[in-house]
Design brief:
By secondary structure, the protein is of the alpha+beta class. It contains twelve helices and 17 strands. The strands form five sheets. The protein has a six-stranded mixed β-sheet with strand order 4-3-2-1-5-6, with helices on both faces.
Length: 417
């Protein structure tokens, strides 16, 4: 697959236009009554995922299985099943599974009393095996392996499948070999298609607009919960379910927030981390703004963090190992006096993102996996000074043939409210 910045945004622009992304202005009176009055649904008209999309993903998995001499991929409820089938199924002790053979048609294993609900969601394949409450689903797995002539084959198990399920299958199918299937699921999921990248571009736009709407409502004495609820409501107005995790002042020195309550005060850092989903594919954005006038130290730290984010963007290109991108950002922060290592920049630079907010691969020291076009990551350096404040700037980048790019052209500056 060849991806360039130009080709992504040609399609991305049409997707956004189809979603009605052109902003409309509201009167000052409307905005005073409703601070979210100018927000419009951006997801109306978005092209949905199709059976052909899921079929293409399964074919990719089959090619990887053949290359790696695996005979079948076992999936249970979760985002990998959603990725390959569109089925959203919660986990319980009862087996609902999707089995993708390297050769042949997909098979589903479903509790008998759930068959109707299962058939409502199944888009590809007609082989549905059911089991009653007093029967063992592991014997159904054995039956499938026998029917497909792979009773002594190798079964790749999606990594999130629980241990008791793997144990049950191993006991019922002693001739088969059960192995970690991460090379199959991650091998498919970490490379996004053009269509998937467009979903993520739209999700990023929605979250940016939701944050901007929330920041316009900042006022002294505001609680973190109030701002978080406003940002969630803004996401809904824009057509997606989303959130914003909010920290004020010294609480922002904890990367994932603090349990201590704090109301907004003049001069506070306001750090918000959040995102939303479009067709299941996620955004992840962090912005640090100031309520009132920032101190010189805050301004200095904000500039260092932004330079680190830009350094990571510049370093990320096809063939470069994941760890080198983390190193590029960390060097900027350490050279500016906020080191060594994880002293102030306390976490890895970024994580893969797609149907899961955090998914493989990760931009972290020790990960030598080369970057490839279609990969997507958070780029989120930070500096956290306990007892004072924290600053983080986060945007999702995608890897193209010509390097890394943010999903939207942004040159953020330190904003005050």
């Amino acid at each position: 697959m060849t991806i360039s910045r130009r080709s992504l945004f040609r399609g991305g622009s049409s997707a956004l236009a189809a979603a009605g992304i052109a902003a409309r202005s509201s009167s000052a009176e409307e905005k005073q009554k409703d601070p979210l009055a100018d927000l419009k649904n951006l997801t109306a008209g978005v092209q949905k995922q199709t059976p052909e999309d899921y079929q293409a993903r399964m074919e990719r998995a089959r090619r990887l299985m053949v290359e790696q001499k695996m005979d079948l991929l076992y999936l249970s409820g979760g985002t990998s099943m959603e990725y390959f089938s569109g089925i959203r199924w919660g986990l319980s002790e009862r087996m609902f599974a999707m089995l993708i053979p390297a050769r042949g048609d997909v098979v589903y294993i479903c509790p008998k009393f759930e068959e109707g609900r299962g058939r409502e969601q199944i888009r590809l394949g007609t082989d549905i095996r059911t089991w009653e409450e007093d029967e063992s689903p592991y014997l159904v797995v054995r039956e499938v392996l026998k029917d497909r002539k792979i009773a002594a084959g190798t079964v790749a198990v999606e990594p999130s499948v629980r241990e008791f399920v793997v144990d049950g299958m191993s006991r019922a199918c002693p001739g088969a070999r059960f192995v970690n299937g991460d090379t199959i699921t991650q091998g498919c999921r970490m490379i996004k298609t053009k269509k998937e990248l467009d979903y993520m571009a739209l999700a990023a736009e929605i979250t940016h607009q939701a944050f901007a709407a929330g920041f316009r409502t900042l006022h002294e004495g505001m609680s973190t919960g109030e701002l978080g609820r406003t940002i969630s409501a803004a996401h809904m107005r824009l057509g997606a379910s989303g959130y914003g995790a909010v920290s004020f002042g010294p609480n922002a020195a904890f990367p994932h927030g603090s349990s201590m309550e704090r109301s907004l005060k003049p001069g506070d850092v306001v750090l918000v981390d959040g995102g939303c989903r479009v067709e299941g594919f996620q955004s992840d954005v962090t912005r640090t703004v100031i309520f009132g006038s920032p101190s010189e130290k805050i301004k200095q730290v904000w500039d260092i963090v932004k330079k680190a984010q830009d350094a990571a963007l510049e370093a990320a290109r096809p063939g470069v190992p994941c760890e080198a991108v983390d190193a590029a950002a960390r060097k900027v922060i350490v050279d500016a006096g906020y080191g060594p290592d994880y002293k102030y920049f306390t976490h890895r630079l970024g994580h893969g993102i797609g149907l899961d907010g955090h998914e493989y691969p990760y931009l972290v020291k020790g990960n030598k996996l080369p970057l490839q076009p279609g990969m997507t990551f958070s780029d989120e350096p930070g500096i956290y000074i306990v007892g004072e404040f924290g600053v983080r700037t986060e945007d999702v980048i995608y890897i193209a043939e010509d390097g890394a790019h943010f999903f939207r052209n942004i040159t953020p500056t330190l904003e005050t409210y």
